[in-house]
Amino acid sequence: MANNLKKLYIGAICNRDLQVLEQIKIFLSKNYNIVLIDFMKHGLEAFNEKYFKKRLKKYPIVFLIVKLTTKKENQKVYDIVKSVAPNISTLNSLSSVQSCESRKATFRFIAKNVKKVNIPKYYNTIDQAKQALTDGIKIIVKLDSHNIPDLPKNDRILGIIKSPNELEFFIKGHSVDQLFFQQYLGKFDIINKVYVIGQWIVSIISHNRLQSTNLSPLEIIHIRTNIDDKLKRRIKRLGKKLGMSVYGVDFIETSNGPYIVDVNDFPSFRSIPEGISLISDHIYNLIQIRVETVSKSVKIKS
Q1: Model pTM?
Q2: Are residues 86 and 128 part of one domain?
């Protein structure tokens, strides 16, 4: 099939889940004659405007994948891409990738822009967190940075806090700006993980490793579950508002309905065997839509 298709070039500005990216690269080349060019081959430090322009001149890039760990230096990447390649489509919008670097930014956006989606309360300042604790609300304290390289997920959570004094103890040695204070909804052994690729959506259940430490091999297996149509529509609306077409959402079922507790731009999809092929198909379809749109625009102008 690939031999019958015109060769296309897409670019990747990625430094996380690189094994997944390599599998996508192979699939795209084999099935769609799409060549993926790695713009981060020499690391974030080597990525600059001159280098990016040079690579774009060499390869007629029609599409970009941006997938980054959380670092302050990423601002340089966003600025360069916006400046040098404003008309090249991206898998997920730059603003969504940037928002998902920070839990604060993610949940602030959801609270402001996405209606009818339940999220735990979050507290922007230490004073707001202390007031909530004084009012009897338990708080879970997490690192605000979402995609931290080489840091296990459980280490990104400082703990569950019950009082203002306990909060003072837990945050010692940490910059408050680097912490995320969120309402603790209670103990839940099961977390529902939703994966979205375009219009395709699937939900699996995963044991909460924060609550369950001695899991059997059978319990570690992720089991697919049905997802309520109403929640499915709201999760898709959330992705659309953020500007994402490939993303993940974690939610828990409470007595007051489902609550979204985490959002991830472009998760690894390790628990989804067909993820690589679906993402690759989705990329190809997005490129074709873009090519057809540009072609129609040219015809109208001429």
Answers
A1: 0.90
A2: no
